[in-house]
Amino acid sequence: MKDWNRLYSAVEGFFKAQMPGFLTYHNWQHTLRVLYFSEFIAEQQALSEEDILLLKTAALYHDTGFIHGPQQHEENSFKIAEIELPGHHYLPSELMIIEGLIQATKIPQQPKTPLEEILADADLEYLGTDDFTTIGESLYHEMQHFYPDMSRNTWNELQISFMKQHRYHTTYCIQNRLPKKLENLKRLIDQRNA
Prior knowledge:
Layout: H1 4-18, H2 28-44, H3 49-61, H4 73-84, H5 92-103, H6 114-124, H7 132-146, H8 152-165, H9 171-176, H10 178-193
Helix pairs in contact: 1-3, 2-3, 2-6, 3-5, 3-6, 4-5, 5-6, 8-10
């Protein structure tokens, strides 16, 4: 039988003990936010407890691969999950679903199932919130670790391009995050043109 609290504690311990401090965005706080919104959006859709558990599990693991760097971190995240989850009584068929969920967060996002759409949206729901600037700043600082020469203008151009290409998939985020995302995008464009 699966023990969510034991699994949660194990992944939390992994983040706190092993994830580098320069990950100012892909950290435990981000994981908690994705976990919260995954469950929240799933509950709006009246999904089964089993599906919600798989979704929450994928949310917990989706960025653990950053311990090896940003390249192919989704694949690396699943490798970590694939090693650990059988010890928490996850079945091979469940691991396949979790792999798809983690891959659904890869940019550009291409979720194929309703569950994958939820995790993809939960991962980027902040784009359509008042937290956009603060969270974006933490991502900028993290990016500067990997790309020390990245200027503020280059970062803003990256954000504008990314937000123009990004789209939400779930009804919840389309209704409750898209309008604010468009406002945030407009503000970035206005700042560029000022």
